[in-house]
Design a protein that fits this description.
Elements (H helix, E strand, L loop, with lengths): L2 E12 L5 E9 L3 E17 L2 E12 L2 E10 L4 E6 L1
Antiparallel strand pairs: 1-2, 1-6, 2-3, 3-4, 4-5, 5-6
């Protein structure tokens, strides 16, 4: 996987137990692309310099090919980041 570290717009739902489930996100390259997350493989909590992040390893169909990628949710800044793809 290649590190890209780009801010993304995310649609997610929050369960009553407080867990977060990302559904789909939008990324703007030359054009705007919406990527629907088909499967969440792993969820971990990461702490960097005192900043907590939820790290999701996911699968999605991108241009007809199933790809694995990593997205992060910054709990303090409330931002989503496409970290690796």
């Amino acid at each position: 996987m290649k590190v890209v570290s780009k801010n993304i717009e995310m649609i997610a739902y929050f369960k009553t137990d407080g867990s977060i489930r990302p559904i789909r996100f939008r990324i703007e390259e030359e054009q705007c692309e919406v990527i629907k997350i088909t499967k969440i493989l792993r969820v971990e909590m990461e702490k960097l310099c005192g900043n907590k992040m939820m790290v999701y390893t996911c699968c999605a169909l991108i241009d007809g090919i199933e790809k694995i990628f990593e997205i992060k949710y910054d709990l303090a800044k409330m931002k989503w980041i496409l970290f690796k793809i």
